């Protein structure tokens, strides 16, 4: 798998045909076709469906699934190229689960930028927990924030902070404390927080899907919460940020899910000074959110000694 092959793959998707993609890349059509054929042979499955007499080309099912993998490959290739940069040592590669990156990290990155200026460069990736373990182990990510802790050889899993799970809704009829049995599952915005939460959720709402909508991306939550009577169970840090919206209210839960713990991952003694600076800034941001227990002061002391 080469950069030229991945580049050809994305250009064909963008252009809609091999002939148009070849023109855009300033190569011949047979040369571009060979790149795709080589890539497909290496993968062991076709990426595009080819029909006689049809000018436009369509992705196969596996071709559609390969898009995200190819994008990650390009990201890694770009980072590998940046090793030639003389100031690569000041780049901190960070990964995080979506809820933390959407509602906590923006202010953290802003503070790092203001305080550190150009002395720290941030390269950020949104990864699920297991992906982060892989990338930290392989040295592609320096530090990652995850919600699902597992054992992974060569990677340290260290608690970063802990927070309650609460109810948020635009329905004003709820009392201050709500019991799960009083919630209508057909109005739920279902979000997958961690395995412990899933067990709790299945107990109260059954494993069968009765939700109104299920989300895997945090950037849609604010919009869906504007729908009448919708509700969601979220970590306190998410609720704290969303409560700034006029239509969102926070409620406590009777018999709540287990607290959510966010961990950070690191491997070896790589970029300890940059990681320490990031953890310090993150700790300061966590202190601005009421009800969160941060473990970062002790953890950061361990990191720097």
Describe the structure.
By secondary structure, this protein is α/β, with parallel strands linked by helices. The chain has twelve helices and 14 strands. It has helices spanning 3-15, 18-25, 29-43, 61-81, 98-103, 105-116, 129-137, 195-205, 221-224, 236-242, 272-286, 296-304, and strands at 48-49, 58-59, 91-96, 121-126, 143-146, 156-163, 165-169, 177-178, 189-190, 213-214, 231-235, 249-253, 260-266, 293-294. A six-stranded mixed beta sheet has the order 4-3-5-13-6-14, with helices on both faces. A four-stranded mixed beta sheet has the order 8-12-7-11, covered by helices on one side. Helix 1 packs across helix 2, helix 6 packs across helix 11 and helix 11 (272-286) runs antiparallel to helix 12. The longest helix is centred in the first third of the chain and has 21 residues, at 61-81. The radius of gyration is 23 Å and the shape is globular. The chain starts with a helix and ends with a helix.
């Amino acid at each position: 798998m080469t950069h030229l092959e991945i580049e050809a793959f994305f250009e064909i998707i963008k252009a809609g045909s091999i002939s148009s993609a070849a023109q855009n890349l300033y190569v011949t059509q047979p040369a571009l076709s060979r790149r795709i054929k080589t890539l497909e042979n290496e993968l062991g499955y076709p990426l595009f469906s080819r029909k006689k007499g049809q000018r436009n080309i369509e992705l196969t099912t596996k071709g559609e699934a390969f898009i995200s993998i190819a994008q990650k490959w390009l990201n890694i290739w770009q980072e590998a190229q940046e090793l030639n940069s003389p100031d690569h040592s000041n780049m901190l590669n960070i990964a995080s689960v979506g809820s933390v990156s959407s509602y906590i990290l923006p202010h953290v990155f802003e503070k790092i930028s203001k305080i550190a200026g150009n002395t720290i460069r941030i390269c950020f990736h949104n990864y699920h927990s297991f992906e982060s373990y892989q990338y930290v182990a392989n040295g592609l990510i320096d530090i990652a924030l995850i919600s699902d802790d597992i054992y992974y050889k060569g990677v340290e899993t260290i608690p970063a902070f802990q927070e309650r799970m609460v109810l948020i809704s635009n329905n004003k009829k709820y009392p201050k404390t709500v019991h799960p049995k009083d919630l209508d599952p057909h109005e739920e915005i279902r979000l997958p927080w961690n395995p412990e939460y899933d067990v709790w959720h299945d107990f109260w709402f059954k494993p069968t899907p009765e939700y109104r909508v299920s989300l895997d991306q945090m950037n849609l939550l604010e919009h869906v919460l504007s729908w009448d009577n919708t509700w969601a169970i979220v970590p306190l840090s998410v609720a704290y940020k969303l409560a700034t919206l006029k239509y969102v209210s926070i409620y406590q839960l009777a018999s709540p899910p287990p607290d959510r713990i966010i961990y950070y991952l690191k491997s070896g003694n790589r970029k300890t000074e940059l990681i320490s600076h990031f953890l310090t800034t993150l700790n300061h941001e966590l202190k601005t959110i009421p009800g969160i227990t941060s473990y970062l002061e002790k953890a950061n002391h361990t990191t720097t000694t």
